Amino acid sequence: MISNNNVVQRYNPEQIAKPVGNYSHVTKINRNAEWYVFSGQIGIDQSNQIPTDFNEQVTNTMSNIVKILASQNLTPDQVVKINIWATETIDWNHFYEIWERIFGTTPPSMTIAYVKGLGLPELKIELDVWAAG
């Protein structure tokens, strides 16, 4: 078990297959923690522009996640779960480069789904973030 802080602990049980990606199978939250549920974060930039390039949207989305966490005095270590919704195939090399920079060696639990569309036609990816602090 790896403890990133006194609230969130992550691990991968030896009794099941290793994760097929960069995530943790189990994320445990201290019973005295406060829960934070954030609206889906998208690839919009500070100028309210949504780039047409998928990887630019990924980069902006990850940056927006760090900023929204900071707005609540939270860090990426306190992220419990991320659900990823994408309308096109994810460039995992680009995605994991940013993911690992933000979450390091003990990433949160993750679910990925490819969908036909998101809330706005120009959106190509949206990340749903849960945290505890």
UniProtKB/TrEMBL annotation:
It comes from the Bacteria. It comes from Paenibacillus albiflavus. This is RidA family protein. InterPro entries: RutC-like_sf (IPR035959), YjgF/YER057c/UK114 (IPR006175).
